[in-house]
Amino acid sequence: MRKFPFSVLAIVLALLMVAAALFIGAVKGSRVEKAQVESALGSLGTVFTTRVETGNNLLTVARRHLPQGDERMAAVARDVQALSSQASLAARTRANTSLEENARALLAVLENSASVQADSRDMAYVTGLLPQALDQSAQWTDVGSYNEAAGAYNDRLNNTFSGLLARLLGQTEAELFTP
């Protein structure tokens, strides 16, 4: 009977340890990089908060001048709720786009409302302050830096050997913010 040489066993164990180190390193590196992408997402959170506040201010003015069941007010309220939720980035992106459209429509109705035209304070909100707040918060959306970080992460995840290993162990791509 032949004895199994210890040198073969040592080589097999060394190869297993190298493979384990590669997998562990790939996952750890991927997790650190994804955490950096998620911290860049924090800049979008500030913008979402500003958009929610602007939507709520618009609803406050609209409630003073429109009937309670107005569909445009309800649409803005739904958008504000969706944008302030902890939903996926894709859902919040859709809510952000929808809020822009619905808020503009509600502002147009309010601007043409006789009761708003008779109230100089609310007319100033409807024609100046609220549209300006919508425009500024839309411009503040730091899409470039977040999408750049997320895109770079996704590229490395999809186009490198360590990314392949990380994907095999369950790492997923970062969502892009596409308004």
In a nutshell, what does this entry contain?
By secondary structure, the chain is mostly helical.
Can you give a write-up of this model?
The chain is mainly alpha-helical and 179 residues long. It contains seven helices and no strands. The chain has helices at residues 6-65, 71-84, 89-111, 114-118, 120-140, 143-159, 161-168.
Sheet-strand content, in percent, reads under 5%
Low-confidence stretches: none
Query: In angstroms, what separates the terminal alpha carbons?
Result: 71 Å
The gyration radius over C-alpha positions equals 26 Å
Element-level helix/strand string: HHHHHHH
Structural class: mainly alpha
Quick one: biggest sheet? none
**Shape call:** rod-shaped
The helix count comes to 7
